[in-house]
Amino acid sequence: MTTIAVIGLGTMGLGIAQTYASAGFDVLATDAVAGARDSALDRLRAGLAPRVQAGKMAQADLDALASRITVVTGPQQMGVADLAIEAVIEKIEVKRELFAALEAVVAPDAVLATNTSSLSVADMARGLTRPDRLLGLHFFNPAPVMKLVELVAHPATASQALDRARHLTEAAGKTVIQCPDRPGFIVNRCARPFYGEALALLEEGRSAAEIDAAMLAAGYRLGPFELIDLVGADINLAATESLAAAMDGHPRYHVFDALRRQVASGDLGRKTGRGFLYPDKPGPAPAETEAIALQIEATLANEAGWLLAEGGTTQDGIDTALRLGLNFPRGPFEIMRKHSRSHLLAELRRLAAAAPAPLRDRYAPAPILEQP
Questions:
Q1: 167 labelled catalytic
Q2: Residue 310 catalytic?
Q3: Rounded-to-integer distance, Cα 43 and Cα 38, Å
Q4: 136 and 202 inside one domain
C-alpha cells in the first residue's frame, strides 16, 4: 500500500489528507498542536456530514474514508510514508526543520513536498541531505474540491520525485501542472494583472461596478473586485506586496494606492460587510466593456508571456492553471489567439504611452507578443 503523510491539520492540511484518503490511500497525519490532532477526524466528519444528510455520500463511505486517516503525534512516526506533504505555517525556518526531521525517518526514495504558496522551494531545500527529492505540491482551497495542483520543481529536483508526486496526485483526481520555482508559481503570479489593471482603471476614474460588469460580460464568472471582496482586500494586498518584493519592485507588480486605501479604511470585503463593491452587485455592462476587458486581458496575456519566457512551463499548462485555479473562461494564450498578438501589442503600447513614467515598463511586451 502507498502511504501519504500530511503535516499540518488546519483547513488546508486536513483537506489534503481528505483528498488522498478519498482516493483510497492510507494517510498518516499530524500537527504540532495537540488540539488540532485531537479534533482532526471530528472536523473531517463534521465537514462531510451535510453531504451524508443530503444523500450525496453514504455514511459507510465517510466511515471508510475516516478509517484510512491515522493521526500520529509527530513526523517521527511517519517513516513508512512514500510521499510526505507539509501544510504548516509559511515560515521557511519551520519548514526546513520539519523536512530535516522527516528526512531522518523516511525511506531514501520517499518524496518530500511543500504546499507553500509564496516561499522558494530551492531555499527550503538548502541544508537537506537529499534536496533532489524535495518539490512543491501547491493545492488550492478547498483542497478536496479544487482540481488544480501546481507541481513545483526547483533546479535540483529529481525527475523520479516529480514523476512519483505527479502519479500519486493524479491518482487522487487532481490535474497536475508543472511550473518553475518562481515567485507566485503560475496562478498567483499570472492573476496579479486581473486585480492590478482593474485597480489602475479604478484610479483612472472607472467605478468598481462597471469594471466588474465589463468582465462579467466578457465571460468571467466573477469580476476582479468581487474576487478581492471575496478573499479580502487585506489578503490581496499582502499577496501583491509579497510578489512585488520577490520581483524586485518591477512595475508589473505595482501596489496601487487604491488598494492600500481600501485596507486602511477597514472595508475589506465580505468578512467586514463592505468592500470595493460588496454588498452591491455589478450593474449592466458599460458602453466601454470591450475597452475595459481588452486592457485587463492584454496585461494578463503579457504576464503569462513573461512567465513562459523564463522557462519551466508551457502555454497549455498556464492556460489550464488559470482556468482551473481561478475559473477563468479562457487562459492567457487563448486570449492571444482570440485577440491576436498584434492587437494585444498595440494595446500594451497604448497603455505605456498613457502611463506615468515610473509605470511605463509595466506594459513592456513579452517576447512572444513581438514575434511575427
A1: no
A2: no
A3: 10
A4: no
Query: Which CATH number belongs to the domain containing residue 156 in this structure?
Result: 3.40.50.720
What value, to the nearest 5°, has the Cα angle with vertex 257 and ends 256 and 259? 75
Kindly report the pTM of this predicted structure.
0.94
pLDDT per residue as tens digits for the range 123-149:
999 989 999 999 999 999 999 999 999
Q: What is the CATH number of the domain that holds 361?
A: 1.10.1040.50
Q: What is the mean pLDDT of the chain?
A: 97
Residue 170 bears catalytic tag: no
254 classed as catalytic: no
The catalytic residue among 188, 236, 242, 302 is 188
What amino acid is encoded at 160 in this protein? Q
Cα–Cα distance for residue pair 212/223, rounded to 1 Å: 4
* 101: three-class secondary structure by DSSP: helix
Q: How far is CA 42 from the centre of its chain?
A: 27
Per-residue pLDDT at 372: 77
Chosen domain end from 180, 198, 216: 180
